Amino acid sequence: MTAPRTLFAKIWDAHVIMQKPDGDALIHIDRNFVHEGSFHAFGALAKEGRKVRKPRQNFAVADHYVPTVNRDQGLAAVEDDDARHMIGLLEENCRTNGIVHYGMADARQGIVHVIGPELGITQPGLTITCGDSHTSTHGALGAYAFGTGASQLKQILATQCLWLKRPKTLHVTVSGKLAPGVTGKDVVLAIIAKIGTAGATGHVIEFAGAAIRGLTIEGRLTVCNMAIEAGGRAGMIAPDDKVYEYLHGREFAPKGVDWDAALKQWRALPTDDGASFDREVTLDGAALEPMLTWGTSPEEALPVTGRVPDPATLGDANKRDHAKLALAYMDLKPGTPLTDIRIDRAFIGSCTNGRIEDLRAAAAVLKGRKAVIPAWISPGSTPLKAQAEAEGLDRIFIEAGVEWRASGCSSCAAMNGDKVPPGMRSASTSNRNFEGRQGKGARTHLMSPAMAAAAIVTGRVTDVRTLMQER
Amino acid sequence: MKPFTTLTAVAAPFEMANVDTDRIIPVRFLRKLRSEKAGYDPYLFHDMRFDGAGRENPDFVLNQAPYRKAGILVAGANFGCGSSREGAVYALLDWGIRAVIAPSFGDIHYANELQNGMLPVTLPEEICRGLRDQLRAKPGATLAIDLPAQTVTDTLGDSHPFMIDPVYKERLLKGLDDIGLVLEQLPAIENYEDSYHAQRPWLA
Q1: DSSP assignment letter at A58
Q2: Residue B11 backbone dihedrals phi, psi, to 5 degrees
């Protein structure tokens, strides 16, 4: 009889190639993703005369720098010289190294953290890496997935393994049933507001509890996506039937007898009764409300019914100092009701909230209403774009006066030029409200797709539940 | 990788917690190629260092005369949180910073510093605050970091011990390349992969 283990411990143990007495473990990496920004790692690899050791365990997609407009005109029409070069360079590096590549014109193209699950590349029990901090997203299917910098990415390409220290574990339990209008985004913003952006540093978070189990796969992906915004090394959720149904039949999911074998292994993954975590945090899911950020750190978030806080009332000196700077940058006054904040533009999309459920939630609010501010929607992947169009969502967006664009990281990191102009206040479904994240001087309020849609039709922060009642 | 043993350098007090990597290097510079001739130093803290017209902001610590040659930053908690961009480390290194002292670091950024021969030093909040107070009182003063002894000596000559994982320490002291270390284990890796994939043929 083995001691009870956590989901994380089971995955970790299965991937240890060797354990050194000093605590370093050599960990096998099942899947690694690369994107245009990976050029530093490929360049360093080539300079050292090394090749990708396991090309079939690597996958490439163009997402960070691709334009979201005029995509049918192809690579040659990308106006930004650097971006065009980087998109082409990724394809070239993949060809040289024999890595499957979903380029700008590929029907499977999309944001790396959207297409991984969508293509069934992401599976329970796997170790997954990418040179991107939001790799934590993939943990929603029961994987141990984490971001790396360029040096570790280079090592993974060259060896398909990585020396790692075993992280600690944090168990975040969200009990109860979420109220209408409260989504995975609101849950994770509430968690980050509670534990802080360094709250999970050095830890892998396992999200659990009735409210998490009740989330769809899309909602779970949103929660794990932002585990990194709580400082977590990774976020993960125990796989269940929802995950298996989601994966069945997808391109890279196991088939036939392999499926049966995989399912048997996956069912053994969830945390055993009695397994212990290094830390525990609990939240009452039933008490949660739609959330948004007011400051310049994802932890500076409050329920939409709240008011801009007075920094002087914050207990911790670091938080107080940060809040003062944040309010100056955001041009907000303490005590202002959040619903009095004017919004200048909106972005719906990203690896956080660019999935079909997110698009449907936005459409439910936008249907029959008109945008009063400039806004665009970039679906998380090209297949999702087609699905949304088959469902008629694109017509709802266009009739509401919202731009319906092609898939990419777009305005989340604004690498492709989809920037928010200086001083403008943006309602965004992305994951970071750091100073300058969406463009120099841009003021970002993070929120769910439904809340962003509510801001689009009112031009201010709006409790989406009030619009839901009008229906 | 350049080994790290000891460093005595001008230290700059950086009064801010949760310094994210978007702040250390704004995203628009990540597309730049980095070479010996063209480093990432112009982009370090770009939007704090320069105003909209590209003029230096005189209030920014690294623009002030005593700190222009800083080799050490003493920062607030959770330094380098956010994006995984290694460009943040390139910018710090190319500008001349070889060590950051802070109460805590973002995990990915911490690993990125180590991978590039930079030393992230973790010291308690009150000690970091004390160091920053000393550095403001004596602009341009140096701190001495001794990695073998695991100490930081402040401007008053007091020594503060810090913890670092022995594995990271050894790699920094020797400037070891991780890929070489991994490939020494190739037979064990191949054995592992054969048995792992025998049970999961769909993953090979």
Answers
A1: E
A2: -115, 140
Q: What does the pLDDT look like over A261-290, one tens digit per residue?
A: 999 999 999 999 999 999 999 999 999 999
B6-164: CATH, from 3.20.19.10, 3.40.50.720, 3.90.190.20, 3.90.650.10:
3.20.19.10
Give the angle A138-A465-A213 at the CA atoms, nearest 5°. Answer: 30
Using CB atoms, pick whichever of B78, B105, B202 lies closest to residue A262.
B202
List Cβ neighbours of A328 (8 Å cut-off, separation of 6 or more): none
Residue A157 shares a structural domain with residue A173: no
A172 lies in the same domain as A189: yes
A155/chain B closest Cα distance in angstroms = 6
Whether chain B has a CB inside 8 Å of the CB on A165: the answer is yes
Tell whether A58 is covered by a domain: yes
% of chain B at pLDDT higher than 90: 90
The minimal CB distance from A198 to the residues B81, B84, B185 is found for B81
Q: Which residue has the tokens 């796969």?
A: A217
For residues A192 and A215, membership in a common domain is answered with: yes
Same domain, A333 and A308: yes
Per residue in B81-126, pLDDT tens?
999 999 999 999 999 999 999 999 999 999 999 999 999 999 999 9
For residue A1, being part of any structural domain is answered with no
- Asked if residue A2 is part of any domain, the answer here is no
B193 and A14 in contact by Cβ < 8 A? no
Q: Who contacts A357 (Cβ-Cβ below 8 Å, separation ≥6)?
A: A216, A218, A219
Q: What is the pLDDT of residues B139-193, one digit of tens each?
A: 999 999 999 999 999 999 999 999 999 989 999 999 987 787 888 899 999 999 9
The residue-averaged pLDDT of A70-81 equals: 92
In angstroms, the CA A459 to CA A11 distance is 46
**Is residue A292, in this structure, part of any structural domain at all?**
no
More confident residue, A88 or A21: A88
Q: Say how many domains are in chain A.
A: 3
Chain A residues 295-324 within an 8 A CB cutoff of chain B:
297, 318-319, 321-322
Q: Report the gap between the CA of B8 and the closest CA in chain A (Å).
A: 27
For residue A30, the chain B residues in CB contact (below 8 A) are 203
Contact A70, A84 (CB under 8 A): no
Q: What is the pLDDT of residues A231-253, one digit of tens each?
A: 999 999 999 999 999 999 999 99
Give me the residue from B28, B104, B116 closest to A151, CB to CB: B116
What CATH number is attached to the domain comprising A182? 3.40.1060.10
CA distance B161 to chain A (A): 21
Residue A363: C-alpha distances to residues A274, A454, A463 (Å): 43, 10, 16
Q: What is the pLDDT of residues B41-52, one digit of tens each?
A: 999 999 999 998
Q: What is the pLDDT, as a whole number, of residue A315?
A: 84
- Alpha-carbon distance of A451 to A467, in angstroms, equals 10
Same domain, A430 and A454: yes
Confidence (pLDDT) at A1: 58
The arrangement of strands across the sheet holding A168-175 comes to A234-236, A203-208, A168-175, A279-284
As annotated, the residues of chain B forming the CATH 3.20.19.10 domain(s) are 6-164
| Residue of B78, B79, B191, B193 best to disrupt the A interface, most CBs of A under 10 A | B78
Does A385 lie in the same domain as A347? Answer: yes
- Does residue A331 sit in the same domain as residue A446? yes
A119 is in which domain, residue-wise? 7-166+240-267
CATH of the domain at A434: 3.30.499.10
Q: Is B167 on the interface with A (CB under 8 A)?
A: yes
Whether A114 and A175 map to the same domain: the answer is no
Segment A170-194 mean pLDDT: 98
Contacts of A415 in chain B (CB under 8 A): 27-28, 30-31
For chain A, the distance separating the N- and C-terminal CA atoms, rounded to the nearest angstrom, is: 56
Query: Does residue A220 carry a pLDDT above 70?
Result: yes
- Are A258 and B201 an interchain contact pair (Cβ–Cβ within 8 Å)? yes
